[in-house]
Amino acid sequence: MGIGIPAAIANMMQSFTAVMTNQYLLPYGNDKIAAMGIVLKVSMIALLILTGLAFGGQPLYGYYFGRGDKKRLSELFRFTLVFILSVAVVLTVLIIVLSPFLMGIFMDAENIIKDGTFMLRAQVITMPLVALVLLFTIIFQSAGKVAGSFVLSISRQGVIFLIVLVIGNIFAGYIGVMATQAVSDIITSLIAIILFRVQLSGTFRWKSR
């Protein structure tokens, strides 16, 4: 239950994000909505790659938490952190550079490609922070810290996203809507770091003895 419920909530939040984003894009025209539909599909591929990498380490985290092996936990954490952040940075750079090409695969309308290029870059610019949140989420789940994984599951594409979306739209209009995911990622990653330090930092051995 501690693993299944946060995962189910995260999946529901992704659909919620798409619906709310399209709703706030309505005043800016159908082309913007069409472009965002493509953007969400492309960014989802990157997100699924990072999700698979993050959750691939969950059995090991669960095993070492069960044994109470702080040394192995710390080694695993350092490895998975560097690995998933490196992959996220590479994916981010590739998508940013190839954004016009990726949009062109799905659509040949110049204005939609232009809008989508900007949207896609805004959507993935904080992908390394998303990787960080995913990693912390599976660590909380593996440690049996349901509250931590639940908070992160409803934040990035849920409560935090909605608050930022509303405020961004009021004060910055279209640009505010486009910046919503990046700002939400930044805030959620800060929450993840704070929760980790409060709930689990003592579980890891940070200095070799």
UniProtKB/TrEMBL annotation:
InterPro entries: MATE_fam, MATE_MepA_subfamily. GO terms for molecular function: antiporter activity; xenobiotic transmembrane transporter activity. GO terms for cellular component: plasma membrane. It comes from the Bacteria. The chain crosses the membrane at residues 33-55, 76-98, 118-139, 159-180, 186-206. It is a multi-pass membrane protein. It is found in: Cell membrane. Keywords: Cell membrane, Membrane, Transmembrane, Transmembrane helix. PANTHER family: MULTIDRUG EXPORT PROTEIN MEPA, SPORULATION PROTEIN YKVU. This is Uncharacterized protein. The lineage of its organism: Bacteria, Pseudomonadati, Spirochaetota, Spirochaetia, Spirochaetales.
